[in-house]
Amino acid sequence: MFRKITSNRDPDKILGSELKKEFGVYFERAGSKSRQLLEKYPRQVFTAMVIAILFSGVLAFTVMREKQRPILQVKTSVQNTASGFGQIISTASALQSLWATQQQVDLLLKKDTLTHADSLTLNQALMQMESLRALLKKSRPNH
Length: 143
Known about the structure:
Radius of gyration: 36 Å
Number of strands: 0
Distance between the termini: 59 Å
Structural class: mainly alpha
Shape: elongated
């Protein structure tokens, strides 16, 4: 059902062995230099490591700390609920009006040529759309 996949690569050659063959000299040299440094200055290296850990801790708890956002407490009341429903209804009617105006603009823009009356209607519809968008932005609650 499935064809057997064969490969011509040498099974002894893998990525790790090839990288070791190519860059192994550099890693061995860096390892021997760091070993010499650690044997020669053990206290200084240890002190530098402790200072780096302390510095990292200070940064983690001061500079890198995320600012806590205040938790918004929602206070519900009958008056707010009633005004909320009124806002929903007015927003829905504004959206319906915006949609109808958008359809009118689309119909006008599909025409090959526009008459003077079409241009005036299009201009009035665009101004009405802008005022409806401004009204919708104003009625949107702040987050």
